[in-house]
């Protein structure tokens, strides 16, 4: 699966799920969800012809181990996952899911450690947070040659444009006012 360009709705609250289904984006990112809700949400999104990416680390009741991944693959059937954990990225790739490594840019040491982890696990895509640092988006893409998604602190059209102009393939945001934006 290739990540579509543009804004990807990131659903943090159930009330925004319906709005994400109506968004023109073909992909939805599910954040901060309970395991008991996950299957019905993914099934519903699939019926609406939406692909679902699940933030593995934010699913309440799901363990970040091979059994948790096996359950996700067999029962939930998402297109892919996002995670900060290298072992989860590795498990996703072994199970042929799109694997998106989420990294937080806190300082230069965090950047260095994240780049080592990316080199080790070779995710399909990298989500850079905060996504409002165009210079770092460009740097990480050129250093890894892996598609970049910008996320975190995206609060305006200018933030979206800045990230996409810097080379991000897509932007994730839970700000519903930015959903549907075309660059």
UniProtKB/TrEMBL annotation:
GO biological process, one term: glycerol metabolic process
InterPro entries registered for this protein in UniProt: Aldolase_TIM, GlpP
Keywords: Glycerol metabolism, RNA-binding, Transcription, Transcription regulation
GO molecular function, one term: RNA binding
SUPFAM superfamilies in the record: GlpP-like
Task of the protein: Regulates expression of the glpD operon. In the presence of glycerol 3-phosphate (G3P) causes antitermination of transcription of glpD at the inverted repeat of the leader region to enhance its transcription. Binds and stabilizes glpD leader mRNA.
Name of the protein described by the UniProt record: Glycerol uptake operon antiterminator regulatory protein
Species the sequence originates in: Oceanobacillus bengalensis
């Amino acid at each position: 699966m290739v990540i579509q360009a543009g804004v990807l709705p990131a659903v943090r609250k159930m009330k925004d799920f319906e709005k994400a289904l109506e968004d023109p984006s073909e992909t939805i990112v599910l954040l901060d969800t309970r395991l008991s809700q996950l299957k019905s949400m993914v099934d519903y999104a699939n019926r609406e012809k939406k692909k679902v990416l699940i933030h593995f680390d934010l699913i309440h009741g799901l363990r970040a181990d091979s059994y948790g991944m096996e359950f996700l693959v067999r029962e939930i059937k998402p297109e892919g996952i996002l995670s900060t954990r290298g072992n989860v990225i590795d498990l996703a790739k072994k199970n042929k899911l799109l694997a998106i490594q989420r990294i937080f840019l806190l300082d230069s040491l965090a950047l260095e450690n994240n780049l080592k982890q990316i080199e080790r696990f070779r995710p399909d895509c990298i989500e850079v947070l905060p996504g409002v640092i165009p210079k770092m988006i460009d740097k990480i893409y050129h250093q890894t040659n892996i598609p970049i998604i910008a996320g975190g602190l995206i609060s305006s059209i200018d933030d979206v444009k800045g990230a996409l102009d810097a080379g991000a393939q897509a932007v994730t945001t839970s700000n519903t006012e930015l959903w549907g934006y075309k660059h």
